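Sample 3 of the quickstart, ligand 3-isopropylmalic acid:
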Amino acid sequence: MVANKSVLLMPGDGIGPEVMAQAKRVLGWLQESKRASFAITEELVGGASIDAHGVPLTDAALAAAKGVDAVLFGSVGGPKWDKVPFDIRPEAGLLKLRAELQVFANLRPAKVFDALVEASSLKPDLVRGLDIMIVREATGGVYFGEPRGIETLPDGTQRGINTEVYTTGEIQRVGRVAFELARKRQNRVCSVEKANVMESGLLWRQVMTKLQQDEFPDVALSHMYADNCAMQLAKNPKQFDVIVTGNLFGDLLSDLAAMLTGSLGLLPSATLGAKDATGRLPGFYEPIHGSAPDIAGQAKANPLAQVLSLAMMLRYSFDMDEDAAAIEAAVERVLAKAGRTPDIAAPGRAVLSTTEMGDALLAELQAI
Ligand code: IPM
Ligand code: MG
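Result:
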């Protein structure tokens, strides 16, 4: 088979390389079973790139990311790089990738697997069957707004500045992604901001309202303040279908939603851009969990979020819905019967290492 799909792997730091190793085995299975043929390359990012090249993302690595169909990313950061200058922190590499690839819509599903209902910190009834999609704006807002910085005041004290800023166009394009996703789900979008205190939030609400009226009258739109949304996610998460929100609120709310599912180690994400003239869609795929330095190097990390990110890549970048579904189903079967990594350990079940979890998954895939 001709390798017609190019994928760049960026394992990064901490548990990133450990979980990416298991995703590579799944890529291997896809190739061996002749489901697809990938041209796979790999680049350093984050702290690993700082150590090797002095910057968290080299021009060559960025060019490589721009040149492929999809990027599968691990995680960046760790205490080792806490003292590097702010603008070249490991996280800056990730933010630069999102900005340069112009992947503005970060899809963060929070789905509860039946086998894991007990792993949630909420009561089983509140989370059984939970299936939320958070669409987080990823290339704007306070993460990128200008002015920003730390300045020194005349009296010698300092002032730290960041700017929350959204334009009509930025709100519309992420809104369209949310409405279109809702049409394939329960047809409901909840738009989240702080329109009661922030002008950028007020504009967000106005633009979403008009967008729904003009282009998506068939989709139900509600609005919620971000603080209330956090409360509602903990109180009655099943009320939500698609949540669309800005970069910072999306960062917070997606961690909260992820934890409802029992473990951050299970949640993938896809960050998508707009199709270009040739129909090419930039796609960036990463687990929601970070580099987890506290467990890095101990073979404890759960590789399933990375593997599920790979499944999202198949679905959104390569239209390989069937193969994505096969991997997701294999993950469900692994969760139902085999042992588990420590993050989702349960009484009476064996505790598995990262690689053993990968073994269990590969066994399920090979049985297909
Ligand atoms: C995330 C992470 C990143 C973010 C960090 C690592 C820069 O928390 O993807 O949610 O804040 O976007
Ligand atoms: Mg985060």
